Amino acid sequence: EVEASTTYPFNLKPGTQFSCDDKIKGGYYADVEAECYGYFICSQGEINGPLLKSHFWCGPTTKFNQRSRTCQTEANVACSVSHRYFHLNKDILSLPDPDDDIKDTFEPSKVMT
Questions:
Q1: CB neighbours (10 Å) of residue 39?
Q2: pTM (global) more than 0.85
Q3: Locate the Chitin-binding type-2 domain: which residues (predicted)?
């Protein structure tokens, strides 16, 4: 049985200094002000609109690991260096164009009637 951490900061509030202005759309960012007990996601609410920040908390005994962009046990998270890994969010958007698969898969053909 895992005991709840006695250090879990129930009194913490989401970081207020964080801004999505210079961040990557769809990126996950550790809330360093809240000691990485939470994280932000920067998403676009409207086409060509500004990026909006949404805050989420990790569960008890976990913190947000910026390298893996997941909540992990407190011992596995070095919050003070999280900012060094913000650039990993670029990998989120490096997916292939879904239309490329469709073009390769489907070709027009004549149907006998």
A1: 28
A2: no
A3: 17-81
